[in-house]
Fold this protein.
Amino acid sequence: MEEKVETILRSIEEQLSDGNDKVSFQPKETVLTTEMLSAVLQHPDFEPKAGLIKSMVLRGHQLDALPSSLGNIPNLKKLDVRQNQGLKAVEPGCFLNHLDVFDAGEVGMSSSSLSGFLSAFKPGVTRLELDINQLNELPAVLSKFVALNRMNLNANSLTMFPPVVLEMPSLRELLMNSNRIEHLPDDFKLLTGLTALELKQNSLRSLPASLAQMKSLARFLYDENPLDSCAFRNTPSPWEEFKGFLQQICVQSGQTFSFDAVAQEFVASQQDGTYAQALPIITSNPDRLQNITDVRLVGLALEDLPPQLFQLKKLQFLSLARNRLRQIPHSIEELAMLETLDISFNPINILPASMGVLTRLKTLRTRGTPWFLNPPQEILDSGVDKVLVYLREILQDKVSNKKILLVAMGAGEAGKTSMVNALINEASGTSKHIDAETGRTIGIDIKAWLPTEGDGLEFSAMDVGGQVGAPPPFMAAVLSFIPSVLPFMSAVPPFMHAVLRFMGPTLCRAGATLHCALYTHALSSSGQPTRVLDNLDRLRPVH
């Protein structure tokens, strides 16, 4: 052990040599035990250096107790012993009189052992990180820590809100996510300085109305709680007061607005049953919300977005996931600061060309959306930078792609060739008689069609022969994919003519298994798909 102690002392000297006041011991170099740490701190060569240390990081070692010799570091302000599984106690005589920050997350700490640790500290501690432990209550001695402003109790075993917390008026941040708390006290107004309260993933069914009196609260997270439809208990208008409370949070924070699927039960409980009641929280007074940088409207079944949303000029993060949105308004171009846009799980398959001006956009989430028409799916899959380039080109060029692929498929003698001929013969709208033996299509015929009233549209009409025959298995698979791909092909590339003619004999043998279908797709100057030939009543094939 002596050799390891010498190695650690040399490391301390190196870390302090450039005027640094922080020392960190990496477990990959030497794994410390309580005995070894105590030997280092009591070593004669350590004493001259002790007064220089203000921060000590001992993460991921094998300490089972804090040695009393830690008291030999007179100016120690921060002690990090996170991930020392089995750290249960403090040796007698260990007094850390100047400690400000104590991080003991992920050490397996129980409520009884916490009392022992607190006995080693003076009331001047300002921050306690006690997350991912086994705390089921908090000791009353915590009330003496009058300077404490942040306490992290995430991922413990709390089933009740600790009463001692209400005796800590200096508390600014209280994190209690991922516990099992079922009830909040009515005396929350006693925490007059609280600015952040996090209670995600608990068992809350209601909220105390006293929350609305906490004027300093700027961050309130309550996702994934089984809240009842009545948000604030014991109030005449629980929903209205809850909305007002959320709006207050929004204004106080000046940064984040979150209204997710947990809240939709409140909205649905209203008389008209519409989720849109969530939106007045943003839209009622947008002038007061100009500093908002983060908006999350998740799982609210929204079909439209309020125009006021696009007045939030500093918005950087916008999540619209799991709604019923079919399009993104062109006014999204107003959000020049936007960096992340999440439209996952919406029936959206078109992005407005105006998005091309969002030069700061770095993340575009489209998981769970349909196959995109515009931009094409292959561009969307290439990353947000390629998407923005594509949309900007549409904005700059203002050129319509008026070349359209038209495919006629069907069983033999179903009238595919007659239909195509009737389209081309616009004057009469008819097709000449086609002899079943000599005039039928063999393979694939491709004909050009320029409708006189088509505003410049140019069709490549592909007439696929429909001779009966069983296709090879691999070709059946290819053909089953064709209907889903054809709508997204805006023209027939030259090389495809040769490929299609080569494959014609095989394709035509499968024709009898396909229904007659017409697929068209065009790209207009606005980037929207244009349907053409919605009405084929004028076609009168003659056999």
Summary: The CA atoms of residues 324 and 346 lie 5 Å apart.
